Amino acid sequence: MSRGRLEADEVHEYPGYLLLPGFVDLQVNGAFGVDVATQPERLGELSERLLSTGTTSYLPTVISAPRSLYRETLPALRRAIESGLDGGGAEPLSVHLEGPFVSPVRRGAHPAAHVSPPDTNLLNELLDLGAVRMLTLAPELRGATSLAEAASERGVVVSAGHSDATFEVAYAAFDRHIAGVTHLFNDMSLLGHREPGLPGAALAHPRVACGIIADGRHVHPQVVSLAFRMLGPDRLCLVTDAVAATGMRGGEYPLGTRRFYLDDGGAPRLESGTLAGSVLTMEEAFANILAFTGCTVPEAAKMAASTPARLVGEGDRKGRLAPGYDADVTVLRPDLSVAAVYKGGVRVYSDGG
User: Fold this and answer.
1) What domain count does the chain have?
2) 172-188 per-position pLDDT tens digit
3) What is the pTM of this model?
4) 35: CATH
5) Residue 13 belongs to a domain
6) Is 241 a catalytic site residue?
């Protein structure tokens, strides 16, 4: 006999708590001591630890790297993703390739030796090696338009980032095959009153969705608030750009082929002082966006779950608490700390508090 809609094997009550769709993070280089690019065999460990931050789905991210690393890491990540990782941790939704087709002058922490001009043969090789869902590239580079078209034809979401594009070039790219922006304002042309650059094009365009690192360090809180007022919750995505030092003590950690240092102030930096990702979690990003913008909880939930899910083509099963969707739920206390996480209706994390 079938069960009625109100019948269940278990009932878990959370009076006064927030029940939200599981967070979706489109940019995770690593966390909890794990570096995605150099330790793909630890993806299951990373997925399990991410649950404590309220994250139920994410894109493992690999920055610009030598071909030898791509050839080892991308197949290993694909095998791990296809295995389902035993279904217990946050779900990797395929890989985010952040590079190597980025601007040499806006490369940030990307090694100069591994930045490449657009190359369709290299792109196809990378896409053949791994399960790639998102590609970050600089749209002003010669051949970038053809590369973006080729990636889109293979089902890859193309995002503009690490770019020195002018307003006109960026806006035209958004009209064609580029649907997103990688960490808005960071490592890109500047927003000026005479030359609005890539950020201005992103804010002005009616369609493009933008990731933003809401840690108060990468982007000033008032600028985060400005971006929210311009874009709204349907076009702004919370991302962490988390690195291996996230959730760890200060010290030295890997980021692909590079090493960086986490100082006492919580800023991961290369020896040169360049920021190397963040140690932000989605739990913290959710609290910060509420504080920085004064948005509502439902608006913050859109930015943490439904908008990023929709950007990468998962909007029909992720990012909402509705019939027909995966029952991925993040439960927050009134102080916005994570109390429990459910995947597919099964409780997979509880802090025991």
Assistant:
1) 1
2) 999 999 999 999 999 99
3) 0.96
4) 3.20.20.140
5) no
6) yes
